[in-house]
Design goal:
mainly alpha; Non-ribosomal Peptide Synthetase Peptidyl Carrier Protein, Chain A
């Protein structure tokens, strides 16, 4: 798991899923199937922009970009220009 993925997973676990500690979260856990609601998504986007110094635009707000931690990390890395 990349450092980006680890930081995103930690945020989701601590800030979004804090009441559901029994939920297993991995890089490929489907997030858009009820784990994150619209308020959680807004908080996640705010975190991503501040933590990784990227801008997440409306065009980036697609289910494919937020399906899993791995997808979110790939989006951040593309936006930051660090994608391999």
């Amino acid at each position: 798991m990349s450092d980006t993925s680890s930081r995103i997973e930690e945020f989701i676990r601590d800030q979004i899923l804090f009441r559901r500690r029994s939920v297993s979260l991995a890089e490929d856990t489907p997030l858009t199937s009820g784990l994150i609601d619209s308020l959680g998504l807004a908080g996640l986007v705010t975190f991503l922009e501040a933590e990784f110094d990227v801008e997440i635009g409306h065009q980036d707000m697609t289910p494919a970009n937020f399906r899993t931690v791995r997808d979110i990390a790939a989006l951040v890395e593309r936006k930051a220009g660090t994608a391999a």
